[in-house]
């Protein structure tokens, strides 16, 4: 199968984080119609409770600290909060493991931000905001592995591959790559990375920004093998997660839409997910 080149490559590094610290985003002073903090039925009156997993991984968060406003998703979360009229001092973070976020039930947050892809299946259990980031999936390996230099999906099929369970990365593994060897499911990417280092798997599927960060900053001789064309209608997007039927969903979506329209999301992406290279598309 053919190998195409694309400019959809995204990398982050510790030096980038340090240069980016302290940035501020002008989200404007006007909230979407009717969506001011005083009108919103949040878990705690006058406060916005936001969930994410722990550890909170770079480049989405910095130093495993969602409260510092550093990293793409931390910055997006505070921008949404500001658009709704919540000062940073009135934002509270809680730990919400990924697996608990996408299942039915009352949530202990007003919204969650944790690289959760919007899917029709998940919409049966939770609400999503408008998408705040468009994403492709990618595969990484260690230099010299059996898939280092793979040029097509067919070149991956006889390898032992893994991904975090319950994610669109794992769906890409099973439905797009369709390996002949039983896929390996991991509880999180930390465990999966160690399995890759130990040689227990030949490759790991993660979203593209994470792929570039892991190979640049966390793996010795890490390699981004390539990315996968997005077959989802309209493309895969990350969305903020809310309880099913939440009264906040419409306002949170309006806030995300406003941040996209005024260029705030693009500016945050430029800062924290700097485009510095290329990744081949495997077909």
Please state roughly what percent of the residues sit in beta strands, choosing from under 5%, 5-15%, 15-25%, 25-35%, 35-45% or over 45%.
Answer: 15-25%
Radius of gyration: 19 Å
Strand order of the largest sheet: 1-12-10-6-9-7-8
The CATH H-level superfamily of the largest domain is: Periplasmic binding protein-like II
Distance between the termini: 6 Å
Largest sheet, if any?
7 strands, mixed
CATH topology of the largest domain: D-Maltodextrin-Binding Protein, domain 2
Helix-strand sequence: EHEHEHEHEEEHEHEHEEHHE
CATH class descriptor of the largest domain: Alpha Beta
Integer tally of domains: 2
CATH second-level architecture of the largest domain: 3-Layer(aba) Sandwich
- Low-pLDDT windows of residues: 1-23
- SS elements, strand count: 12
Number of helices: 9
Percent helix range:
25-40%
Residue-averaged pLDDT: 89
How would you characterize the overall build of this protein?
The protein contains 9 helices and 12 strands. The strands form 3 sheets. It has a 7-stranded mixed sheet, with helices on both faces. The protein is of the alpha/beta class. It starts with a strand and ends with a strand. The chain is elongated, with a radius of gyration of 19 Å. It folds into 2 domains: 14-133 and 238-274, D-Maltodextrin-Binding Protein, domain 2, CATH 3.40.190.10; 137-228, D-Maltodextrin-Binding Protein, domain 2.
Q: What would you say about this model in short?
A:
By secondary structure, the protein is of the alpha/beta class. The chain is built from nine helices and twelve strands.
């Amino acid at each position: 199968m053919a190998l195409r080149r694309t400019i959809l490559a995204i990398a982050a590094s510790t030096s980038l984080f340090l240069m980016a610290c302290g940035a501020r985003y002008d989200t404007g002073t006007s909230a979407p119609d009717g969506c001011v903090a005083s009108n919103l039925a949040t878990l705690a009156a006058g406060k916005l409770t936001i969930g994410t997993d722990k550890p909170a991984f770079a480049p989405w968060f910095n130093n495993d600290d969602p409260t510092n406003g550093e990293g793409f998703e931390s910055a997006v979360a505070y921008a949404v909060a500001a658009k709704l009229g919540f000062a940073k001092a009135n934002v509270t973070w809680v730990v919400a493991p990924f697996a608990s976020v996408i299942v039915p039930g009352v949530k202990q947050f007003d919204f969650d931000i944790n690289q959760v892809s919007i899917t029709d299946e998940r919409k049966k259990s939770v609400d999503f905001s408008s998408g705040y980031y468009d994403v492709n999936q990618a595969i990484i390996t260690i230099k010299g592995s059996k898939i280092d230099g793979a040029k097509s999906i067919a070149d991956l099929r006889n390898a032992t591959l893994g991904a975090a369970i319950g994610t669109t990365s794992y769906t890409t593994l099973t439905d797009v790559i369709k390996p002949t060897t039983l896929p390996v499911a991991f509880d999180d990417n930390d465990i999966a990375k160690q399995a890759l280092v130990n040689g227990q798997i030949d490759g790991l599927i993660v979203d593209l920004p994470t792929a570039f960060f892991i190979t640049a900053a966390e793996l010795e001789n890490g390699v981004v093998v390539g990315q996968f064309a997005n077959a989802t209608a309209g493309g895969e997007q990350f969305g903020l997660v809310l309880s099913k039927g939440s009264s906040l969903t419409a306002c949170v979506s309006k806030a995300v839409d406003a941040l996209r329209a005024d260029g705030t999301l693009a500016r945050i992406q430029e800062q924290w997910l700097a485009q510095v290279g290329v990744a081949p598309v495997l077909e």
